[in-house]
Amino acid sequence: MDNITNVTVKPLDRGGKFVTPIRVDYEQDGKAKFWEAVRVSKSVSCVIFNVSRRKFVCVRQFRPAVYVNGADGIVWSEPDVANIGPEISAKSGVTWEFCGGICDKPGLSLEQICVEEVLEETGYAVKAESLVKIGTSRCHVGVAGEAQTVYYVEVTDDMRRGPGGGIDEEMIDVVELGVDEAKSMLGDDTVVAPTDFFWGLSWFFLNKNQA
Ligand SMILES: Nc1ncnc2c1ncn2[C@@H]1O[C@H](COP(=O)(O)OP(=O)(O)O[C@H]2O[C@H](CO)[C@@H](O)[C@H](O)[C@H]2O)[C@@H](O)[C@H]1O
């Protein structure tokens, strides 16, 4: 999963399949302003807690955007051009996450998308009715501002239908995380994780496990 080679970064001039760079021109109190932004889809994610063994079910994957924006030692020859040698460890782009995905299927509710993602990425078959909504936040408000809705669901061992790991070419490791270990990750700068990971864990400790 972290065997990453031949990385290059180049400009995405007119947008791609998943991300479109845009410029927003507007007036505020009659003063002309602009903002540079990207259009992206909204998304869902799901805190999964296996009550049979009191473990969180997490996913770990290599995130190219985390890698290029976060790894030390990358030299940018232009603001959007870099050649990244093999000495830059791919491990710096491997995240801790709860499973989730973008909402790019018209006609499916957020809960239905969440149920699909949980099955594809972790192998657990959950029902939409058993999802508890934690809330919706706006991500990357300086550049994107898309909505992400976060759910919580409890599972048992016998709800597992397969190993998960994603579909098509996805390479996703399913990793269980103990409650004490998870608590120690809150506020730990060395943990590479998105906001909803920390939000989801904090919600759990506030609402489900106050020990
Ligand atoms: N920018 C991109 N470039 C190239 N291929 C891409 C891509 N985005 C998605 N894909 C492709 O689409 C597949 C499915 O993506 P997902 O729906 O699982 O979203 P992902 O979890 O990556 O992130 C989404 O869901 C998580 C969980 O909510 C959010 O944190 C995150 O911001 C949101 O993009 C990926 O495996 C990849 O092949």
From TrEMBL:
UniProt domain Nudix hydrolase: residue ranges: 39-205
CDD domains reported in the protein's UniProt record: NUDIX_UGPPase_Nudt14 (cd18887)
Transmembrane segments: none
SUPFAM superfamilies according to UniProt: Nudix
Keywords: Hydrolase
rRNA processing in keyword set: no
Entry-linked InterPro entries: NUDIX_hydrolase-like_dom_sf, NUDIX_hydrolase_dom
Protein name: NUDIX domain
